[in-house]
Design goal:
The complex is a heterodimer of chains A (239) and B (108). Chain A is mostly helical. Chain A has twelve helices and no strands. Classes of the chains: A mainly alpha (239), B mainly alpha (108).
Chain lengths: 239, 108
């Protein structure tokens, strides 16, 4: 698809980002509900979503804060969950690195799983796009995604206190995240990374300051990287 | 209960840090390439950290005072299997949630 104007690129972005609203709305509401259940005020919950704008990291921080984990460990763990944003940034750089700094800063704030996935797919598909068109497309994908993230967080926060205990909401988070992660386990390396991380986190559950999570995360990452490196070496062997 | 000072430290720190990650390359590093071994480890952060975060909550749920609970264990197993099989986040969520409620109801 070729664009004649930056405006058409923007609207293409809006259309491509639109369907993700279906996925964002329930997650944002769940965050609002669980945050207020954990004792956050409505405005604190909303500011959390606006400042951080990253579902998985927000849920991680919330879970650990509710377990009374020291603040530094909460921060380190939630940041670890968001490390993938650095990867997103790295892979967007060749496409939008030439845009003005203020635009790159705005795009950085709005870099989330959904905008990134749309943008990268579009940039690869249409290499002839100009940098302003790419930026316009990116802005388009964020247009439906971000307001829904804020709005549904607020909605969930307002509903929060009214949800009965029998709904077993304590387990909504583990289920949500297992459901998010399972489809990501596409290769053997991903599976090994997850398995090693799970086993290590169970073995390290008694480690003080909840450092077990960080140890388990690192162990999983190293295991995944090892398997990947080994598979690459195998492919390089001349036949 | 979460105290308000540490909450704001977490919100601001996490916001700044996440922005830092997002801006790291587009904004600061530019298009210089990253070492392959760093990228290789970054690829597995999400699939390692997220399961590690919730594994203890699945095996020793706080709602039962830390005692392993058949309803929650089977809900987690069903979520994982459906997620691996269908690659569909919502199918896995609904299957897991359904299993949890069915098991809680059956086991009373």
């Amino acid at each position: 698809m070729s664009f004649t104007t930056t405006k058409s690129a923007y609207w293409k972005g809006v259309r491509d980002g639109g369907p993700f609203v279906l996925m964002i709305a329930p997650f944002a509401m769940l965050f609002g509900v669980l945050a207020t259940e954990a004792g956050l005020k409505v405005y604190e919950t909303l500011v959390f979503s606006i400042v951080v704008i990253a579902g998985a990291a927000q849920f991680t921080a919330l879970q650990l804060m509710a377990e009374d984990v020291p603040t530094l460990i909460v921060l380190a763990s939630a940041l670890a969950v968001n490390l993938r944003m650095a990867m997103y940034s790295a892979s967007l750089t060749p496409y939008i690195g030439a845009a003005p700094l203020w635009q790159r800063a705005l795009a950085a704030y709005f870099t989330v799983d959904q905008t990134y996935a749309c943008a990268l797919a579009q940039y690869e598909k249409a290499p002839q796009m100009t940098v302003p068109q790419r930026m316009a497309y990116f802005a388009g994908t964020a247009t439906p995604v971000a307001p829904f993230w804020y709005g549904c967080t607020l909605l969930g926060a307002l509903l929060g206190a009214q949800i009965p205990e029998a709904w077993a909401l304590d387990f909504a988070l583990p289920i949500t995240f297992l459901a998010l992660v399972a489809p990501m386990l596409r290769t053997r390396a991903h599976l090994v990374a997850a398995l090693v991380a799970i086993i290590t986190s169970l073995l390290a559950a008694g480690v003080p300051y909840s450092l077990g999570l960080i140890i388990a995360g690192l162990a999983g990452m190293m295991a995944g990287a090892q398997v990947e490196a080994r598979q690459e070496r195998k492919q390089e062997v001349p036949v | 209960m979460i105290d308000s000072q540490s909450l704001w430290i977490v919100i601001l720190g996490l916001g700044l840090g996440s922005f830092g990650f997002r801006f790291a390359f587009t904004g600061i590093i530019g298009s210089r390439p990253m070492p392959a071994w760093v990228l290789r480890h970054l690829r597995y952060t999400a699939v390692a950290v997220l399961p590690a975060l919730f594994a203890p909550a699945v095996v020793w749920p706080s709602a039962t005072g830390g005692a392993p609970d058949p309803a929650r264990l089977s809900a987690a197993a069903v979520t994982l299997v459906i997620g691996l099989w269908t690659k569909n986040v919502f199918a896995a969520m609904f299957a897991g949630g359904g299993t949890l409620f069915a098991m809680l109801y059956l086991l009373g």
